[in-house]
Amino acid sequence: MTDVQICIAALVFLPVLLLLRFPVAVALGLVSIGGIAAIFGWKIALGVLTAIPHEVIASWTLTSVPMFLFMGFICHHANLTDGLFDAARVWLSKLPGGLAVATIGAGAGFSAVTASSVACAATLGRIATPAMLKQGYDPKIAAGTSAAAGTIGSMIPPSILLLLYGIYVEVPIGPLFLAGFLPGLLTAAMFSAVIIFAALIKPQLAPRVLNQVTWSERFSALGRIWPTLLLIIGVFGGLFSGFFTATEAGAVGAFLSLVIAAGMRTLNMRTLLAAFRETLLTTASIFVIAISANLLTRLLALGGFTDWLSSAVVGEGLGQFQILLIIAVVCILLGMFLDSLGIMLLTLPIFLPMLEGASIDLIWFGIVMVKLLEIGLLTPPVGLNVFVVKGVLKDVVSTQAIFLGVTWFILADLVTLTLLMLFPQIALFLPSLLR
User: Fold this and answer.
1) Of 209, 242, 374, 430, whose CB is crowded by the most CB atoms within 10 A?
2) How many CB atoms lie within 10 A of CB 435?
3) Does a structural domain hold residue 207?
4) CA separation for the pair 330, 343 (Å, rounded)
Protein backbone atom coordinates (compact mmCIF):
# COMPACT_ATOMS: atom_id res chain seq x y z
CA MET A 1 0.00 0.00 0.00
CA THR A 2 1.12 3.55 -0.71
CA ASP A 3 1.30 6.13 2.08
CA VAL A 4 -1.86 7.84 0.79
CA GLN A 5 -3.71 4.51 0.68
CA ILE A 6 -2.72 3.85 4.30
CA CYS A 7 -4.17 7.26 5.26
CA ILE A 8 -7.39 6.48 3.40
CA ALA A 9 -7.59 3.08 5.12
CA ALA A 10 -7.19 4.80 8.50
CA LEU A 11 -10.02 7.21 7.67
CA VAL A 12 -12.24 4.29 6.59
CA PHE A 13 -11.45 2.37 9.79
CA LEU A 14 -12.17 5.42 11.98
CA PRO A 15 -16.00 5.39 11.62
CA VAL A 16 -15.95 1.63 12.25
CA LEU A 17 -14.38 2.27 15.67
CA LEU A 18 -16.90 5.03 16.35
CA LEU A 19 -19.79 2.72 15.49
CA LEU A 20 -18.30 0.20 17.92
CA ARG A 21 -18.75 2.90 20.61
CA PHE A 22 -15.08 3.77 21.00
CA PRO A 23 -14.68 7.29 22.47
CA VAL A 24 -13.74 9.85 19.81
CA ALA A 25 -10.32 10.54 21.36
CA VAL A 26 -9.47 6.82 21.56
CA ALA A 27 -10.62 6.11 18.00
CA LEU A 28 -8.64 9.06 16.61
CA GLY A 29 -5.54 8.07 18.55
CA LEU A 30 -5.64 4.40 17.53
CA VAL A 31 -6.02 4.99 13.77
CA SER A 32 -3.43 7.79 13.82
CA ILE A 33 -0.72 5.85 15.66
CA GLY A 34 -1.53 2.72 13.67
CA GLY A 35 -1.27 4.64 10.40
CA ILE A 36 2.03 6.31 11.32
CA ALA A 37 3.43 2.94 12.41
CA ALA A 38 2.36 1.36 9.10
CA ILE A 39 4.22 4.05 7.17
CA PHE A 40 7.31 4.70 9.30
CA GLY A 41 7.43 1.90 11.89
CA TRP A 42 6.54 1.70 15.57
CA LYS A 43 9.64 3.52 16.77
CA ILE A 44 8.64 6.69 14.89
CA ALA A 45 5.00 6.24 15.89
CA LEU A 46 5.86 6.03 19.58
CA GLY A 47 8.14 9.04 19.21
CA VAL A 48 5.27 11.06 17.74
CA LEU A 49 2.97 9.85 20.52
CA THR A 50 5.52 11.04 23.08
CA ALA A 51 6.01 14.48 21.51
CA ILE A 52 2.51 15.51 20.40
CA PRO A 53 0.73 15.75 23.79
CA HIS A 54 3.25 18.25 25.15
CA GLU A 55 3.35 20.13 21.86
CA VAL A 56 -0.44 20.56 21.90
CA ILE A 57 -1.05 21.23 25.59
CA ALA A 58 1.94 23.58 25.98
CA SER A 59 0.24 26.07 23.61
CA TRP A 60 -0.12 29.43 25.39
CA THR A 61 -3.33 30.21 23.50
CA LEU A 62 -5.01 27.07 24.85
CA THR A 63 -4.80 28.42 28.40
CA SER A 64 -7.81 30.58 27.61
CA VAL A 65 -10.00 27.46 27.25
CA PRO A 66 -10.21 26.57 30.97
CA MET A 67 -10.48 30.26 31.87
CA PHE A 68 -13.52 30.88 29.65
CA LEU A 69 -15.05 27.61 30.83
CA PHE A 70 -14.49 28.57 34.47
CA MET A 71 -16.14 31.96 33.85
CA GLY A 72 -19.17 30.23 32.35
CA PHE A 73 -19.51 27.66 35.12
CA ILE A 74 -19.20 30.35 37.82
CA CYS A 75 -21.96 32.33 36.08
CA HIS A 76 -24.09 29.18 35.91
CA HIS A 77 -23.61 27.95 39.48
CA ALA A 78 -23.59 31.41 41.12
CA ASN A 79 -26.79 32.41 39.23
CA LEU A 80 -25.18 35.54 37.80
CA THR A 81 -27.29 35.38 34.65
CA ASP A 82 -30.70 34.65 36.21
CA GLY A 83 -31.75 38.28 35.84
CA LEU A 84 -31.47 38.04 32.05
CA PHE A 85 -34.57 35.91 31.69
CA ASP A 86 -36.57 38.15 34.06
CA ALA A 87 -35.61 41.22 32.03
CA ALA A 88 -36.40 39.55 28.71
CA ARG A 89 -39.69 38.24 30.12
CA VAL A 90 -41.07 41.60 31.23
CA TRP A 91 -40.01 43.34 28.03
CA LEU A 92 -41.09 40.66 25.52
CA SER A 93 -43.98 38.84 27.20
CA LYS A 94 -46.67 40.71 25.25
CA LEU A 95 -45.43 39.31 21.94
CA PRO A 96 -47.08 36.15 20.57
CA GLY A 97 -45.14 33.39 22.32
CA GLY A 98 -43.53 36.11 24.40
CA LEU A 99 -42.04 33.87 27.10
CA ALA A 100 -40.43 31.64 24.48
CA VAL A 101 -39.08 34.69 22.64
CA ALA A 102 -37.75 35.93 25.99
CA THR A 103 -36.00 32.57 26.40
CA ILE A 104 -34.27 33.05 23.06
CA GLY A 105 -33.25 36.59 24.06
CA ALA A 106 -31.96 35.37 27.40
CA GLY A 107 -30.07 32.60 25.60
CA ALA A 108 -28.26 35.19 23.47
CA GLY A 109 -27.33 37.06 26.64
CA PHE A 110 -26.18 33.92 28.45
CA SER A 111 -24.02 33.04 25.44
CA ALA A 112 -21.93 36.17 25.89
CA VAL A 113 -20.74 35.04 29.32
CA THR A 114 -21.07 31.25 29.51
CA ALA A 115 -18.94 30.15 26.49
CA SER A 116 -20.75 26.80 26.53
CA SER A 117 -23.99 25.75 24.85
CA VAL A 118 -24.45 23.00 27.44
CA ALA A 119 -24.28 25.43 30.39
CA CYS A 120 -26.59 27.81 28.52
CA ALA A 121 -29.18 25.08 27.83
CA ALA A 122 -28.99 23.84 31.43
CA THR A 123 -29.58 27.34 32.81
CA LEU A 124 -32.54 27.98 30.51
CA GLY A 125 -33.99 24.56 31.25
CA ARG A 126 -33.84 25.36 34.95
CA ILE A 127 -35.28 28.90 34.75
CA ALA A 128 -37.24 29.45 31.55
CA THR A 129 -38.93 26.12 30.87
CA PRO A 130 -40.79 25.92 34.23
CA ALA A 131 -41.98 29.52 33.69
CA MET A 132 -43.39 28.61 30.28
CA LEU A 133 -45.03 25.43 31.56
CA LYS A 134 -46.63 27.40 34.39
CA GLN A 135 -48.08 29.81 31.82
CA GLY A 136 -49.70 26.90 29.94
CA TYR A 137 -47.18 26.49 27.11
CA ASP A 138 -47.12 23.22 25.21
CA PRO A 139 -44.32 21.12 26.81
CA LYS A 140 -42.74 20.49 23.40
CA ILE A 141 -42.42 24.22 22.73
CA ALA A 142 -41.28 25.06 26.26
CA ALA A 143 -38.49 22.48 26.44
CA GLY A 144 -37.57 22.69 22.74
CA THR A 145 -37.08 26.45 23.00
CA SER A 146 -34.64 26.08 25.88
CA ALA A 147 -32.66 23.41 24.03
CA ALA A 148 -32.54 25.51 20.85
CA ALA A 149 -31.66 28.75 22.65
CA GLY A 150 -28.72 26.99 24.26
CA THR A 151 -27.12 26.37 20.87
CA ILE A 152 -26.56 30.12 20.42
CA GLY A 153 -23.77 29.71 22.98
CA SER A 154 -21.73 27.95 20.29
CA MET A 155 -21.77 31.04 18.06
CA ILE A 156 -21.79 34.20 20.18
CA PRO A 157 -18.35 34.72 21.74
CA PRO A 158 -16.64 33.71 23.90
CA SER A 159 -17.48 30.45 22.14
CA ILE A 160 -15.23 27.51 23.02
CA LEU A 161 -15.85 25.99 19.59
CA LEU A 162 -14.78 29.20 17.83
CA LEU A 163 -11.78 29.51 20.13
CA LEU A 164 -10.59 25.95 19.39
CA TYR A 165 -11.28 26.37 15.69
CA GLY A 166 -9.19 29.54 15.61
CA ILE A 167 -6.32 27.84 17.42
CA TYR A 168 -6.47 24.78 15.17
CA VAL A 169 -6.58 26.58 11.81
CA GLU A 170 -4.35 29.42 13.04
CA VAL A 171 -6.62 32.39 12.40
CA PRO A 172 -6.75 35.38 14.80
CA ILE A 173 -9.22 34.85 17.63
CA GLY A 174 -10.36 38.49 17.89
CA PRO A 175 -11.71 38.76 14.31
CA LEU A 176 -13.15 35.24 14.61
CA PHE A 177 -15.07 36.20 17.75
CA LEU A 178 -16.35 39.34 16.03
CA ALA A 179 -17.49 37.23 13.08
CA GLY A 180 -19.76 35.24 15.39
CA PHE A 181 -21.81 38.19 16.67
CA LEU A 182 -24.10 38.91 13.70
CA PRO A 183 -24.71 35.22 12.83
CA GLY A 184 -25.52 34.64 16.51
CA LEU A 185 -28.03 37.49 16.52
CA LEU A 186 -29.44 36.27 13.18
CA THR A 187 -29.95 32.84 14.73
CA ALA A 188 -31.79 34.40 17.68
CA ALA A 189 -33.96 36.42 15.27
CA MET A 190 -34.82 33.35 13.19
CA PHE A 191 -35.72 31.33 16.29
CA SER A 192 -37.92 34.19 17.54
CA ALA A 193 -39.65 34.42 14.15
CA VAL A 194 -40.44 30.69 14.29
CA ILE A 195 -41.97 31.05 17.76
CA ILE A 196 -44.07 34.10 16.82
CA PHE A 197 -45.29 32.37 13.65
CA ALA A 198 -46.24 29.20 15.58
CA ALA A 199 -48.00 31.24 18.29
CA LEU A 200 -50.02 33.16 15.69
CA ILE A 201 -51.06 29.98 13.86
CA LYS A 202 -51.79 27.97 17.05
CA PRO A 203 -52.19 30.28 20.06
CA GLN A 204 -52.75 27.31 22.37
CA LEU A 205 -49.10 26.27 21.87
CA ALA A 206 -47.85 29.46 23.51
CA PRO A 207 -50.62 31.43 25.30
CA ARG A 208 -50.17 35.16 25.76
CA VAL A 209 -49.25 36.45 29.20
CA LEU A 210 -52.31 38.21 30.63
CA ASN A 211 -50.61 39.93 33.55
CA GLN A 212 -50.01 43.63 33.03
CA VAL A 213 -46.38 44.71 33.33
CA THR A 214 -45.73 48.31 34.34
CA TRP A 215 -42.88 50.43 33.00
CA SER A 216 -41.38 50.61 36.46
CA GLU A 217 -41.21 46.79 36.53
CA ARG A 218 -39.55 46.79 33.13
CA PHE A 219 -36.82 49.25 34.15
CA SER A 220 -36.41 47.52 37.50
CA ALA A 221 -35.75 44.25 35.66
CA LEU A 222 -33.05 45.95 33.59
CA GLY A 223 -31.27 46.75 36.84
CA ARG A 224 -30.85 43.03 37.52
CA ILE A 225 -28.80 42.33 34.42
CA TRP A 226 -25.79 44.38 35.57
CA PRO A 227 -23.62 41.29 36.33
CA THR A 228 -23.91 40.14 32.72
CA LEU A 229 -23.33 43.64 31.33
CA LEU A 230 -20.29 44.15 33.53
CA LEU A 231 -18.77 40.87 32.36
CA ILE A 232 -19.47 41.63 28.69
CA ILE A 233 -18.03 45.14 28.94
CA GLY A 234 -15.04 43.97 30.95
CA VAL A 235 -14.12 41.06 28.69
CA PHE A 236 -15.05 42.27 25.21
CA GLY A 237 -14.36 45.94 25.84
CA GLY A 238 -10.77 45.11 26.77
CA LEU A 239 -10.41 42.51 24.03
CA PHE A 240 -11.61 44.57 21.07
CA SER A 241 -9.96 47.79 22.29
CA GLY A 242 -6.64 45.95 22.26
CA PHE A 243 -6.11 46.37 26.00
CA PHE A 244 -5.53 42.62 26.32
CA THR A 245 -5.37 39.58 24.04
CA ALA A 246 -7.98 36.87 23.53
CA THR A 247 -5.89 34.57 25.68
CA GLU A 248 -5.77 37.10 28.51
CA ALA A 249 -9.49 37.82 28.11
CA GLY A 250 -10.30 34.38 29.51
CA ALA A 251 -8.38 35.09 32.71
CA VAL A 252 -9.97 38.53 33.03
CA GLY A 253 -13.45 37.02 32.58
CA ALA A 254 -12.80 34.30 35.16
CA PHE A 255 -11.52 36.85 37.69
CA LEU A 256 -14.44 39.24 37.07
CA SER A 257 -16.99 36.44 37.47
CA LEU A 258 -15.48 35.57 40.86
CA VAL A 259 -15.51 39.21 41.99
CA ILE A 260 -19.12 39.73 40.87
CA ALA A 261 -20.32 36.47 42.47
CA ALA A 262 -18.57 37.42 45.71
CA GLY A 263 -20.15 40.88 45.61
CA MET A 264 -23.61 39.37 45.09
CA ARG A 265 -22.98 36.90 47.93
CA THR A 266 -23.73 33.91 45.66
CA LEU A 267 -20.15 32.60 45.78
CA ASN A 268 -19.62 29.85 48.33
CA MET A 269 -17.45 26.76 48.63
CA ARG A 270 -20.07 24.52 47.05
CA THR A 271 -20.39 26.82 44.02
CA LEU A 272 -16.64 27.17 43.69
CA LEU A 273 -15.98 23.43 43.90
CA ALA A 274 -18.74 22.67 41.37
CA ALA A 275 -17.27 25.22 38.92
CA PHE A 276 -13.75 23.87 39.45
CA ARG A 277 -14.88 20.27 38.96
CA GLU A 278 -16.81 20.93 35.75
CA THR A 279 -14.01 23.10 34.39
CA LEU A 280 -11.41 20.39 35.03
CA LEU A 281 -13.53 17.62 33.53
CA THR A 282 -14.49 19.63 30.44
CA THR A 283 -10.94 20.92 29.89
CA ALA A 284 -9.47 17.42 30.19
CA SER A 285 -12.01 16.09 27.69
CA ILE A 286 -11.26 18.91 25.23
CA PHE A 287 -7.49 18.52 25.53
CA VAL A 288 -7.53 14.74 25.07
CA ILE A 289 -9.59 15.07 21.89
CA ALA A 290 -7.31 17.91 20.70
CA ILE A 291 -4.23 15.71 21.17
CA SER A 292 -5.82 12.85 19.22
CA ALA A 293 -6.95 15.20 16.44
CA ASN A 294 -3.40 16.55 16.19
CA LEU A 295 -2.15 12.98 15.82
CA LEU A 296 -4.54 12.48 12.90
CA THR A 297 -3.34 15.73 11.34
CA ARG A 298 0.26 14.50 11.64
CA LEU A 299 -0.63 11.18 9.99
CA LEU A 300 -2.37 12.87 7.05
CA ALA A 301 0.48 15.34 6.58
CA LEU A 302 3.28 12.78 6.85
CA GLY A 303 1.42 10.35 4.59
CA GLY A 304 0.94 12.99 1.88
CA PHE A 305 -2.87 12.80 2.13
CA THR A 306 -3.36 16.56 2.53
CA ASP A 307 -1.39 17.35 -0.65
CA TRP A 308 -3.17 14.56 -2.51
CA LEU A 309 -6.63 15.74 -1.43
CA SER A 310 -5.86 19.40 -2.24
CA SER A 311 -4.66 18.41 -5.73
CA ALA A 312 -7.72 16.19 -6.22
CA VAL A 313 -10.10 19.03 -5.33
CA VAL A 314 -8.34 21.40 -7.73
CA GLY A 315 -8.16 18.71 -10.43
CA GLU A 316 -11.86 17.90 -10.17
CA GLY A 317 -12.71 21.58 -10.47
CA LEU A 318 -15.07 21.55 -7.50
CA GLY A 319 -16.41 25.01 -6.73
CA GLN A 320 -16.74 26.56 -3.29
CA PHE A 321 -20.46 25.85 -3.09
CA GLN A 322 -19.99 22.17 -4.01
CA ILE A 323 -17.27 21.76 -1.37
CA LEU A 324 -19.39 23.47 1.26
CA LEU A 325 -22.37 21.28 0.37
CA ILE A 326 -20.27 18.12 0.83
CA ILE A 327 -18.98 19.41 4.17
CA ALA A 328 -22.50 20.35 5.30
CA VAL A 329 -23.87 16.87 4.54
CA VAL A 330 -20.96 15.19 6.36
CA CYS A 331 -21.26 17.43 9.44
CA ILE A 332 -25.05 17.08 9.70
CA LEU A 333 -24.82 13.28 9.41
CA LEU A 334 -22.03 13.12 12.02
CA GLY A 335 -24.05 15.49 14.23
CA MET A 336 -26.65 12.75 14.62
CA PHE A 337 -24.15 10.57 16.45
CA LEU A 338 -21.20 12.62 17.78
CA ASP A 339 -20.70 15.69 19.97
CA SER A 340 -19.77 19.05 18.42
CA LEU A 341 -16.15 19.16 19.56
CA GLY A 342 -15.51 15.62 18.35
CA ILE A 343 -16.98 16.40 14.92
CA MET A 344 -14.93 19.58 14.51
CA LEU A 345 -11.58 18.11 15.51
CA LEU A 346 -12.31 14.89 13.64
CA THR A 347 -13.12 16.57 10.32
CA LEU A 348 -10.88 19.65 10.22
CA PRO A 349 -7.74 17.69 9.26
CA ILE A 350 -9.68 16.39 6.26
CA PHE A 351 -11.52 19.59 5.36
CA LEU A 352 -8.59 22.04 5.56
CA PRO A 353 -6.83 20.86 2.38
CA MET A 354 -10.12 21.14 0.50
CA LEU A 355 -10.72 24.65 1.87
CA GLU A 356 -7.23 25.85 1.04
CA GLY A 357 -7.42 24.32 -2.44
CA ALA A 358 -10.66 26.23 -3.10
CA SER A 359 -9.36 29.47 -1.48
CA ILE A 360 -12.26 29.58 1.01
CA ASP A 361 -11.98 32.26 3.70
CA LEU A 362 -11.20 30.40 6.93
CA ILE A 363 -12.88 32.93 9.25
CA TRP A 364 -16.10 32.70 7.25
CA PHE A 365 -15.87 28.92 7.13
CA GLY A 366 -15.41 28.84 10.91
CA ILE A 367 -18.83 30.47 11.31
CA VAL A 368 -20.41 28.07 8.79
CA MET A 369 -18.80 25.13 10.60
CA VAL A 370 -20.11 26.23 14.00
CA LYS A 371 -23.59 26.69 12.55
CA LEU A 372 -23.46 23.11 11.30
CA LEU A 373 -22.35 21.97 14.74
CA GLU A 374 -25.24 23.91 16.33
CA ILE A 375 -27.65 21.88 14.22
CA GLY A 376 -25.97 18.71 15.51
CA LEU A 377 -26.72 19.77 19.09
CA LEU A 378 -30.43 19.32 18.31
CA THR A 379 -30.62 16.41 15.88
CA PRO A 380 -31.61 12.93 17.08
CA PRO A 381 -30.54 10.47 18.32
CA VAL A 382 -27.66 12.23 20.12
CA GLY A 383 -28.78 15.87 20.29
CA LEU A 384 -26.73 16.89 23.32
CA ASN A 385 -28.77 19.98 24.25
CA VAL A 386 -31.96 17.94 24.16
CA PHE A 387 -30.57 15.53 26.74
CA VAL A 388 -29.22 18.40 28.87
CA VAL A 389 -32.69 19.97 29.08
CA LYS A 390 -34.22 16.54 29.69
CA GLY A 391 -31.77 15.99 32.56
CA VAL A 392 -32.76 19.31 34.15
CA LEU A 393 -36.51 18.69 33.77
CA LYS A 394 -36.40 15.01 34.84
CA ASP A 395 -39.81 13.44 34.13
CA VAL A 396 -41.67 16.68 33.36
CA VAL A 397 -41.16 16.35 29.58
CA SER A 398 -40.20 13.26 27.57
CA THR A 399 -37.11 13.13 25.37
CA GLN A 400 -39.27 12.44 22.33
CA ALA A 401 -41.35 15.56 23.03
CA ILE A 402 -38.23 17.72 23.22
CA PHE A 403 -36.95 16.33 19.91
CA LEU A 404 -40.33 17.16 18.35
CA GLY A 405 -40.12 20.63 19.87
CA VAL A 406 -36.75 21.43 18.28
CA THR A 407 -37.80 20.39 14.76
CA TRP A 408 -38.87 23.90 13.72
CA PHE A 409 -35.69 25.36 15.16
CA ILE A 410 -33.60 22.94 13.08
CA LEU A 411 -35.43 24.16 9.97
CA ALA A 412 -34.75 27.76 11.03
CA ASP A 413 -31.06 26.88 11.45
CA LEU A 414 -30.97 25.46 7.93
CA VAL A 415 -32.37 28.76 6.60
CA THR A 416 -29.75 30.69 8.61
CA LEU A 417 -27.02 28.39 7.28
CA THR A 418 -28.17 29.06 3.71
CA LEU A 419 -28.07 32.82 4.31
CA LEU A 420 -24.55 32.58 5.75
CA MET A 421 -23.39 30.64 2.70
CA LEU A 422 -25.06 32.97 0.21
CA PHE A 423 -24.05 36.19 1.98
CA PRO A 424 -20.61 35.77 3.61
CA GLN A 425 -20.61 39.44 4.66
CA ILE A 426 -23.06 38.58 7.45
CA ALA A 427 -20.07 37.00 9.18
CA LEU A 428 -17.25 39.08 7.69
CA PHE A 429 -18.64 42.60 8.08
CA LEU A 430 -17.57 43.20 11.69
CA PRO A 431 -14.07 41.67 11.26
CA SER A 432 -13.57 43.88 8.19
CA LEU A 433 -13.88 46.95 10.44
CA LEU A 434 -10.65 45.93 12.21
CA ARG A 435 -8.61 46.06 9.00
Assistant:
1) 374
2) 5
3) yes
4) 10
Instruction: With respect to residue 25, please indicate whether it lies within any of the assigned structural domains.
Output: no
Residue type, 430: L
Report DSSP letters for 218-281, one per residue. HHHHHGGGHHHHHHHIIIIIHHHTTSS-HHHHHHHHHHHHHHHHHHTT---HHHHHHHHHHHHH
3-state helix, strand, coil in the chain (%, to 5): 80, 0, 20
Bin 171: left if φ > 0, else alpha if -120 < ψ < 50, else beta. Answer: beta
Query: What residues make up the domain containing 406?
Result: 61-432
Q: Which residues contact 134 (CB under 8 A, 6 or more apart)?
A: none
Backbone angles phi, psi at 357, to 5 degrees: -65, -30
Find the Cα–Cα–Cα–Cα dihedral 305, 309, 312, 318, rounded to 10°: 170
| Burial (Cβ within 10 Å: 0-12, 13-18, ≥19) of residue 13 | middle
Q: Is residue 67 part of a domain?
A: yes
For 15-65, the pLDDT digits (tens) are: 888 888 888 888 889 999 999 999 999 998 988 888 888 888 877 778 888
